[in-house]
């Protein structure tokens, strides 16, 4: 079955850095675009960054442009999110996700999430 497993979250001081990882299994990882979303307490889940199959194109939320970098290693079936210059407002649960074809539509798959807390 399809599985996405995130890791790398934790507590970091403002201005610090973290790298999140997401390993996928049960599907052809290299054939599908991947994304990172986040959800802060009391807020809706929002798109943070996305990346195409080969990594040639990326997209970022305005709030993280210039600070976060999404990348992937298809040989390792792993998606990354390098987060620099973290701010308290980056505190959230971070999820990796992909959409896979099913019948004539798509199904979205999500990991369990990893908590990122930015606080002094």
Overview of this protein structure:
With 120 residues, the protein is an all-beta fold. The chain has strands at 3-7, 10-12, 18-25, 34-39, 46-51, 58-60, 68-73, 78-83, 92-102, 105-110, 114-118. The strands form 2 sheets. Strands 2, 4, 5, 6, 9, 10 and 11 form a 7-stranded mixed sheet that branches. 28% of the residues are buried. The mean pLDDT is 97.
In short:
The protein is an all-beta fold and 120 residues long. It is 0% helix and 54% strand.
Determine the number of helices (DSSP H or I, runs of at least 4 residues): 0
Distance between the termini: 40 Å
Beta percentage is over 45%
- In angstroms, what is the radius of gyration? 14 Å
Write the layout of secondary structure elements.
Elements: E1 3-7, E2 10-12, E3 18-25, E4 34-39, E5 46-51, E6 58-60, E7 68-73, E8 78-83, E9 92-102, E10 105-110, E11 114-118
Parallel strand pairs: 2-11
Antiparallel strand pairs: 1-3, 3-8, 4-5, 4-9, 5-6, 7-8, 9-10, 9-11
Note the main attributes of this structure.
single chain, 120 residues, 54% strand, seven-stranded mixed β-sheet, mainly beta, 11 strands, four-stranded antiparallel β-sheet
């Amino acid at each position: 079955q399809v599985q996405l497993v995130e890791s790398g979250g934790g507590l970091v001081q403002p201005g610090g850095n973290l790298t999140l990882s997401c390993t996928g299994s049960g599907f052809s990882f290299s054939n599908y675009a991947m994304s990172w979303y986040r959800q802060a307490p009391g807020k809706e889940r929002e798109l943070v960054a996305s990346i195409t199959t080969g990594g040639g194109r990326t997209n970022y939320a305005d709030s993280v442009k210039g600070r976060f970098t999404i990348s992937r290693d298809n040989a390792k079936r792993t998606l990354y999110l390098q987060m620099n210059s973290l701010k308290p407002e980056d505190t959230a649960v971070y999820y990796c996700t992909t959409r896979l074809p099913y019948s004539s539509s798509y199904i979205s798959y999500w990991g369990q999430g990893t908590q990122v807390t930015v606080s002094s």
